[in-house]
Design goal:
heterotrimer; A alpha/beta (370); B mainly alpha (337); C mainly alpha (349); A: alpha/beta; Rossmann fold; four-stranded parallel β-sheet; 13 helices; 17% strand; B: 337 residues; two-stranded antiparallel sheet; 2 strands; globular
Chain lengths: 370, 337, 349
């Protein structure tokens, strides 16, 4: 008797839940069906009206927002240093930094949140091209220029400034292929599985091998959890037991390259394997100089973020953004991706000494060059 | 005779007080906090966490725990995007999303009740399983690497659009309504009564003829279905399902429940507690963002406030327990004299 | 005697050995390189950090608690050690001071946890979750958000990378055992000794088994629980130092997500999360199985590393289910035997 009653109650409860949800959904969908879903909704109390306001950026306060992926790592440090350095001569400009803690949803929330708060410009690395779409559209509709850095979003926005991932991977393929005369086995260490979608380095590398060096066998691609070099080292250790002959290793970041180098050194095979990293972190530059790492590519973070700030000020000064300018596609500024090798003698690469001298790493992270 | 407030009512007032205090604080410190736009975003965010927390509260009231809700959100979100790609409309996806989430919950319930694993172990492992399932089903390009994939269906996308021109999302409305319905279910039906009974004392509940296994399975199905529902709305709002969807949400949802007054170990609290807890956490997150503080200050304030809220609760529980014991002793004395 | 052997054959040890054997045979057939000595050392080296953390967290779990802050504590210990050692330019003494500071900080955090959990009666789950936020903020505050490098070749480097045993195998491949493996083994042995041979260990089991009873027997629950949480945080610190050393820098992201893996290792190792039941050997078995699954996913071609989480969840569920079934069976068997004995005694009387 009791059993029957409970199950009846269960059925009724579930039915009520389902029905109420469905009714609400239907009501909402009917209401929304004739509205174009692409029209974003602006905040109520944004104090900027579209395109008409020109701002005197040297005398009035300007508030910008930077939403980095996380608040750790050399790339972020360089960005922060570049921003602070640039702002030294712009006392009335402030840049708030609100890290997204490696969560695309959180990043989108921070940007959405910022729209009603009087920020005049927003720049960030879009962790997910689609999740960032809604917030960008809202910000642009509210008259705020949005600049994405390194990682693009699908939404049309004011500017995309990139150090080209795909191209740097392609260059790495060309240089490593040439270094082993187009014959041998290749291996890659990739971004964490969940973030592989946003990084295009490994596909670029694979395409370069496919296009130019048909004799190079691509062995395997290992995702490395949390971008951690310890994970890269573990993967490399397994790869070293698994494959008897590995000639080139391409890593999606210099931290991963570091892990791979440690593993290779432990196995005593450092003479046989060439490791190429990405991003040109200071520790990697030192390793290239010492000869333990074959190469990397130099992403000039300092210039990049200086450009971001000034470009943003240009938009703020003239009251411009993608909506005002009527963009249908996001314009792109490609930053140079310069391959680094020890002597700079391979196709298009520069020597590591030149990079150490001319990058700001010696100022930002002096400990790395001891 | 003056009617005394019982301890759970007082506990409810404490949570409401916390929420009001936070609202007052933030609206005094920031002019943007009480704007229509911010409130609608706040309620959308709170609803995402809150829907998961409301479902979870059923399991937690019954003395269990569900650490797989984050994984369920991830897997269900990605499955829903696939479903809409087959050509199903938004409503179908919504219903199938709830069913998928419920099915994941059923799996948890099956393992817990039939295979006799503890809730913690089952859901921790199945959480990994569901996150992994999300990666298995994720969209990939020719190289085999993951790629971003937009939702195409217009009806599906409209679920994530604001209801009014000024804001307010469907998810917030659904959250409020479901929290109330769930409150009614927990307090006015046998299902709720039995859940409380199991949470308070599983053995005596079983002795008095409650079908413990069935109630537990229903709890897990509820938890899964609510997570599935949250996943549908979030993917509709984000226009995609990324593989990092739902990451760490299980811990936040549990924190929301506990802050709201659902006791770990069961027997106390309900959906409204989870509702208030989620609102508190979302408000904390939203409000702290209004100031140009360094990120570490935000982390520290968040952590400490959660601790303080819960320490407050545990101290209150201790005091009310002591008071009850004293009262009982007094009444015993009057009886004997 | 015969019964003893029989019961050990059906007991938990037999089950563990059986699982490891199945995995090894399966792997040995499909991937012969799995059973090379180099690969086995790789697996042990991989689990050294997890293993140390699991051994430490076992103490917290045995008294019926949990420690979800270990990942953050690990990051904190690396950061503190590096920042302190940087003051003296990474000389050997300053490195030692740094390491000592890190471990002391960890132990203090553990005591703080113990205070909140026992004195204020807040569930450990929430306490450690909330403090992990605070600790994350503290790391960012200390390091200024930047990663802290240490000088290569300093004492920091040797914590994980020093080669203790090194010779060339007959196949021409080098055989290396590094410091991290040695630290892991030493730490595990110490934990085993403390848990099974000292009165402190007995008290931990007693508190986990029945706190009220322990109190009545005269055990100082507060002090012993604090010590257990301190050991958990201290072990996380040692793990964090190894992690920092092998990563070659300290940053707030190190060790993120380790708490989940360590919990998994403990669960697979048959440790009862309600407290009072579990052994060091179980914790190490769990860590080993987690390590082997990760190793399998990198070694075998048809298993993609991206699906690691999926396999981990699946295998752990299966192992837990089997072990629970075995346990209930053996309990039933015991119950039946007890009944038989009781009946026989009744007949005798």
């Amino acid at each position: 008797m009791k059993k029957v009653r409970t199950s009846r109650f269960l059925a009724v409860v579930m039915a009520v839940l389902m029905m109420s949800v469905a009714v609400f959904a239907l009501a909402a969908c009917e209401k929304e069906s004739d509205v174009n879903t692409d029209t974003p909704v602006a905040g109520d109390d944004t104090d900027i009206t579209m395109g008409t306001t020109k701002v005197d950026i040297y005398n009035t306060d300007v508030k910008l927002l930077y939403v980095p992926i996380g608040d750790a790592g050399p790339a972020f440090e360089m960005a922060r240093y570049a921003i602070e350095d640039t702002l030294k001569f712009l006392p009335n400009v402030t840049v708030d930094i609100k890290p997204a803690e490696y969560d695309p949803t959180k990043q989108a929330d921070i940007i959405t949140d910022a729209i009603g708060q009087g920020y005049q410009g927003i720049f960030f690395e879009a962790m997910d091209p689609i999740v960032s779409q809604g917030p960008i559209e809202k910000a642009e509709a509210a008259g705020i220029p949005v600049i994405t850095v390194n990682l693009n979003s699908q939404a049309v926005h004011t500017l995309f400034i990139q150090g080209n991932d795909y191209k740097s991977g392609y260059q790495a393929g060309e240089i490593l292929g040439a270094a082993i005369d187009g014959k041998g086995n290749a291996l890659t260490l990739n971004a964490p599985a969940a973030q592989a979608a946003t990084s295009q380095m490994i596909p670029g590398f694979q395409d370069a091998l496919k296009d130019n060096y048909p004799d190079i066998t691509f062995l395997e691609d290992f995702p490395c959890e949390g971008w951690q070099s310890s994970e890269a080292a573990n993967n490399m250790k397994s790869a070293l037991t698994k494959y008897d002959k590995i000639d080139i290793v391409y890593a999606a970041s210099d931290d991963l390259a570091d892990g791979a180098i440690n593993a290779i050194k432990e196995a005593g095979r450092e003479n046989e394997i060439k490791v190429y990293g990405s991003m040109g972190y200071p520790q990697a530059l030192q390793r290239i100089k010492d000869g333990t790492q074959f190469g990397s590519y130099f992403a000039d973070g300092y210039s990049q973020f200086q450009v971001v700030v000034y470009q943003m000020l240009y938009y703020v000064q003239n009251g411009l953004n993608a909506t005002v300018l009527g963009y249908t596609d996001t314009p792109t500024l490609d930053m140079p991706t310069t391959p680094i090798t020890k002597d700079g003698n391979l196709a298009g690469s520069v020597s590591v000494d030149q990079v150490i001298e001319n990058s700001r790493w010696k100022v930002v992270m002096p400990d790395a060059f001891k | 005779m003056k009617k005394k407030l019982n301890s759970s009512t007082i506990r409810r007032f404490i949570t409401i007080g916390l929420v009001i205090a936070l609202t007052a604080l933030f609206s005094l410190l920031s002019s943007n906090f009480l704007s229509m736009y911010n409130l609608s975003e706040l309620f959308r965010n709170a609803a995402y966490l809150g829907l998961i927390a409301c479902g979870l509260s059923v399991v937690m009231v019954g003395g269990g725990i569900d650490l797989s809700v984050g994984g369920i959100v991830c897997a269900t979100g990605i499955i829903c995007v696939h479903l809409s790609d087959i050509g199903l409309s938004g409503y179908m996806v919504l219903i199938l999303g709830i069913i998928t989430g419920g099915a994941f919950g059923l799996l948890n319930g099956f393992i817990v009740t039939k295979l006799k694993l503890t809730e913690f172990v089952t859901t921790l492992a199945s959480g990994f399983l569901f996150f992994g399932l999300g990666l298995v089903f994720a969209y990939r390009d020719d190289h085999g690497t993951l790629m971003a994939h937009s939702i195409k269906s217009n009806t599906y996308l409209s679920l994530g659009q604001p209801l009014l021109p000024g804001g307010f999302y469907l998810i917030s409305l659904v959250w409020v309504v479901l929290a109330i319905i769930l409150w009614v279910v927990m307090h006015k039906t046998e299902l709720g009564l039995y859940t409380f009974a199991i949470g308070s004392d599983e053995k005596s509940a079983r002795m008095s003829g409650v079908n413990v296994a069935k109630i537990k399975v229903i709890g897990f199905i509820m938890s899964g279905a609510f997570s599935g529902l949250a996943a549908v709305f979030v993917t509709a709002y984000e226009r995609t399902a990324s593989t990092s969807l739902g990451n760490m949400r299980e811990f936040l949802a549990i924190a929301a429940c506990v802050v709201g007054g659902v006791v770990l170990g069961g027997g106390k609290g309900d959906a409204v507690s989870a509702f208030l807890g989620a609102l508190f956490l979302a408000m904390l997150d939203n409000g702290l963002r209004k100031f140009g503080m360094d990120s570490y200050v935000v982390y520290m304030i968040q952590g400490s406030l959660i601790l303080v809220a819960i320490a407050f609760d545990s101290q209150f529980a201790k005091i009310s327990y002591r008071r009850r014991v004293k009262e009982q002793r007094l009444s015993a004395q009057t009886l004997t004299s | 005697m015969k019964e003893k052997i029989l019961s050990s054959l059906t007991g938990v040890w037999a089950f563990r050995v059986l699982i490891l054997l199945i995995v090894c045979v399966f792997m040995g057939i499909s991937e012969p390189r799995f059973l090379t000595i180099g690969n086995i050392v790789n697996i042990i080296s991989y689990i050294s950090v997890y293993g140390i953390m699991a051994c430490g967290m076992l103490f917290a779990v045995l008294i019926g608690g949990l420690d979800l802050s270990i990942g953050r504590v690990a990051a904190l210990s690396g950061t503190i050690a590096c920042i302190v050692a940087r003051v003296g330019g990474f000389s050997a003494t300053w490195c030692l001071i740094g390491i000592a500071c890190a471990i002391v900080a960890g132990i203090l955090i553990g005591y703080f946890h113990g205070f909140l959990i026992v004195k204020l009666a807040i569930p450990s789950f929430v306490v450690t979750l909330a403090t992990s936020y605070v600790i994350y903020g503290a790391i960012t505050l200390l390091s200024g958000g930047s990663r802290v490098d240490f000088v290569r070749g300093s004492l920091m480097d040797t914590i994980s990378n020093a080669r203790i045993v090194e010779f060339t195998l007959s196949s021409g491949k080098p055989f290396v055992i590094q410091m991290n493996v040695v630290i892991f083994i030493v730490f595990a042995v110490i934990c085993w000794y403390v848990l099974s041979k000292t009165t402190f260990g007995r008290r931990i089991y007693a508190i986990g088994g029945n706190t009220t009873a322990a109190q009545f027997v005269g055990i100082n629950v507060f002090r012993n629980s604090c010590a257990a949480y301190a050991i958990s945080s201290g072990a996380a610190c040692i793990g964090g130092l190894i992690l920092m050393s092998s990563t070659s820098y300290a940053a707030q992201t190190l060790g993120a997500g380790y708490e989940g893996m360590v919990l998994m290792a403990l669960i697979v190792g048959g440790i009862n999360l309600a407290g009072g039941k579990g052994t060091i050997s179980g914790a190490i078995f769990g860590a080993l199985l987690v390590g082997i699954i990760a190793n399998i996913c990198t070694l075998v071609d048809f298993l993609n590393l991206e699906y690691l989480k999926f396999f981990q969840g699946l295998i752990i569920l299966i192992v837990c289910i089997i072990s629970v079934i075995l346990e209930t069976r053996s309990r039933r068997g015991k119950g039946r035997k007890a009944k038989q004995i009781a009946e026989m005694q009744a007949q005798d009387e």
